[in-house]
Amino acid sequence: MIPFYGVVVLSCVMCMITLAMAVGKNTILDKNSIQWFRFTFILVAMGMTFEFAGVLFSHLGNIPSWLFITVTLCEYVLSPFLTLSLAKSCGIKASLKPMFAVMMFHAALEIALAPFGIIFYISEEGYFCRGDFYWIYLVFCGISFLFILFVFIHLARKAKENNLGALLMIAVTFLCGQIPSIVEDQIYTGYMSICITAVLLYIFTQDLMRGQLIKIIGQEQEKSTHDSLTGVANRELYERRTGIMNGNIQNDAQAVHFAICECDLNNLKVINDTYGHESGDFYIKACCKVICNFFKHSPVFRTGGDEFVIILQNEDYENYEQIKKDINEFVMSEVRKKSSILEKISFAAGFSKFNSKTDKTVGDVLNRADFEMYIHKKCVKTNASV
Predict the structure, then answer these.
(1) Which residue from 9, 147, 239, 292 puts its CA 20 to 30 A from 124's CA?
(2) How far is Cα of residue 191 from the mean position of the Cα atoms in its chain?
(3) Are 293 and 304 in contact (CB under 8 A)?
């Protein structure tokens, strides 16, 4: 038993020391978490060493009682403190001073009672024995269990649903090692479970932070490719999209099917000059919302201050003629409304379909849509003046 247990302890201790040395390399953890994980790994290595020394002393017998008691005290004092270092490693922001005070009280109690053999004592034969008040140690272990549960709940709030299963398994791993070692002092799984839990939490915390980082990067990319006022895609994304489409046209024009609609808002300059730019922004957003309602299955791009381009696809492409008709009817009905220009949604729209035989780029289709849009704009102005 002892040789096997010694090999396990040595492997775990070497694992902890290796991680303590490597934790700051090639990681996305913040500096504070790195320092706390390093501290945790060192504590676990020390705790396992003290535990093994105690088991070895008990096996050998005839070890000076003061040395045996000192080693056991170190093990008992360290164990509850590990929950604090794990909490800080996992990014707990709340103050841990109350918990630290409890653990310090426990450490002082263990040291003060050690000479009297109340919590544990070393028999005359040199064996470890539990004292009549061993339950005091168990109480503080229970407090540390509750605290580590708090840590897991904290991580669960930050984790996505697909990570909750992994978090639950880490918690079960911790309890599976801790509970048997508390119930029976001949089962030496307490520190092994802490060792495994520390490694798993290290991996879990990194994955959690990586996921948050990816989310932030995605949000930043979203901001860089979308118009801040309207929320639709901006010109940069339009250029990217058309670049891909031009490549598809060059590879196989026959397989490409799309149409372009270009919209240009009417009366924006007058609204800005008369009512102010805040009203102009409101008008742009109102017009954009209407345009997006017409094109529910296609990307809408704001390519200029008052210009929008839509690449018709899917159902919108199939309903090309109907959408064109609906927009014209809507615009004309708005023109005839007896209200101020600020209350009217007015824009001109030009349409064009991609022709694989004549069009070489998306720009060729856009040019035709642009030409039709100006014809439509003149028609709208004519009706507005009637």
Answers:
(1) 9
(2) 30
(3) no
Q: Which helix (H) or strand (E) holds 76?
A: helix 65-89
User: Encoding tokens for residue 294?
Assistant: 């017409």
Where are the strands (E) in the chain, listed by range? 120-122, 128-130, 233-234, 259-265, 300-302, 307-312, 347-353
Helix (H, G, I), strand (E, B) or coil at 179: helix
Q: CA-to-CA distance for 33 and 39, rounded, in angstroms?
A: 10
Task: Check: CB of residue 358 under 8 Å from CB of residue 336.
Answer: no
**CB of 77 closer than 8 Å to CB of 110:** yes
Dist. CA 141–CA 149, nearest whole Å: 12
Could you tell me whether strands 259-265 and 233-234 are parallel, antiparallel, or unpaired per DSSP bridges?
unpaired
Backbone angles phi, psi at 256, to 5 degrees: -95, 130
Instruction: Tally the C-alpha atoms within 13 A of residue 21's C-alpha that lie toward its C-beta.
Output: 6
Between strands 233-234 and 300-302, the pairing is parallel
Mean pLDDT per 10-residue section of the chain, whose length is 386 residues: 80 89 77 86 89 84 84 83 81 78 88 88 81 86 80 72 72 78 74 84 79 70 79 91 93 93 93 91 94 94 94 93 94 86 90 94 95 92 67
Q: What share of the chain is helix, strand, coil (3-state, %, to 5)?
A: 70, 10, 20
Token couple for 64? 């000076």
CA 84/CA 63 separation, integer angstroms? 32
The tokens describing 98, both together, are 């109350």
For residue 262, give both structure tokens.
């270009």
The span from the CA of 307 to the CA of 369, in Å, is: 12
Q: Look at phi and psi of residue 91 and say left if phi exceeds 0, alpha if psi is from -120 to 50, else beta.
A: left
pLDDT at 385: 54
Contact 41, 197 (CB under 8 A): no
- Dihedral of the CA atoms 242, 244, 249, 253 (nearest 10)? -110
Spatial separation of the C-alpha atoms in residues 198 and 37, rounded to whole Å: 8
Side by side, the strands of the sheet bearing 307-312 are 233-234, 300-302, 307-312, 259-265, 347-353
Residues 27 and 4: their CA atoms lie apart, in Å, by 34
Tell me the two tokens of residue 258.
Answer: 């799309």
Q: Report how far residue 76's alpha carbon sits from residue 110's, in angstroms, rounded to the nearest whole number.
A: 8
- DSSP secondary structure letter of residue 226: B
Choose among 20, 78, 27: nearest CA to 49: 78
